Amino acid sequence: MTTNQPRSGYTLPVFACAAAVAALEYLNSRNQSIEQVSIDLIEPTETVNIPIEQIAILTDNSALSITRSDPGDNLDLTRNTPIWAMVEWLDSSPMELAGHGDQLSEAIFIKGGEGIGYDQKTGKTAIYRYAKTLLLANIEKILPPNQSILITFILPKGKQLATRTSNAAFGIVEGLSLLGTTGISQPLTVPEQLEQYKIQLQEKAKKFDSLVFCIGENGLELAARMGISPEKMIKTANWLGPMLVCAALAEVKSILLFGYHGKLIKLAGGIFHTHHHIADGRLEILTAHCANLGLPTFDLQRIFNCSTAEDALQYLRELDAIKGENWVNRVYGEMAKTIDQRSQTYIYTQCEKNVKVGSVLFDRQRKIIIKSENADIILE
Predict the structure, then answer these.
(1) CATH numbers and ranges of domains, the chain
(2) Which keywords fit this entry according to its UniProt record (predicted)?
(3) What is the pLDDT of residues 203-250, one digit of tens each?
(4) Which of these, 226, 269, 314, 335, could form a disulfide with 285 (CB 3.0-4.6 Å)?
(5) Phi, psi values for residue 164, rounded to 5°
(6) What is the pLDDT of residues 331-368, one digit of tens each?
(7) Strand (E) or helix (H) holding 158
């Protein structure tokens, strides 16, 4: 019996880049029909053809192109959402151009329009490193000499879709992010993908006896920024339990769990499938650790009634600032220790293997809150 492999698609930055490339090509050619464009994905080293749904000249100096997201066999909520890119010639001095948005090069500027989120703390548009690298590589090839352009990205359904994501937990509001570390969109939510993850893990386990489990794109990006080799990273999505056991059976000796605290907190409560549809309990687990360390009842009630784990973390930070105490390090230190112990026990219960597990928890600004003692040992 054979089963079809889940079909991969492309990440949102790829379609945004394709729309921008098409709009620029149309500005250059005017009357030439453009039904698809070739995009160098950079990561992986592959060139792909992306369909263009609509394209039009807006003014003598600008054009608009529309693509439509196709993440493959993935229950990604951006499936079929339109991505617009407006490209316009700029005729200004470098000083004047600097006010037009993020500068990719001396001649290429980008900005987020309707439906593209922004960081609530910094005000910066949520267009990240891979998307910018992709744009620069593909636009520079076709940009005429001595010309400058402004690319404006628009996601008409961005605000609506953002309410169904965890973007707000990371401080990204008013829309979606152009986020990713690769151009390929893996079908993470298709059950068969777990088997694909296990195969990747087994291949990496042949080369390394210590691996880093990254829960989502944010974990991958921060781990890379810390200098951790991508060769040692495994993106686990929500399947932490099966992946921990798979690593142990592949003779991995140590595992570093690298993730947003709102996900990893669940492991401290013995929840090893972290999707919110399966189980939650984050605030209950956090409150229990606070109580065990002696946090006063009034503050426990405030923690328990917070809307999100991020809000609870902020409350503890405010307590520390006001009273000169150290609740964040104490509480999160104990939780990280519990995560390590529960993970190690889970592995041994499932397959009688002893594996050292360490954990690194970060907040919505992608700043590390705590590293467990085991994490420090593994990182060395």
Answers:
(1) 9-185 (3.30.2110.10), 191-379 (no CATH)
(2) Cobalamin biosynthesis, Methyltransferase, S-adenosyl-L-methionine, Transferase
(3) 999 999 999 999 877 788 888 888 889 899 998 877 889 899 999 999
(4) 269
(5) -105, 10
(6) 999 999 999 999 999 999 999 999 999 999 999 888 89
(7) helix 158-162
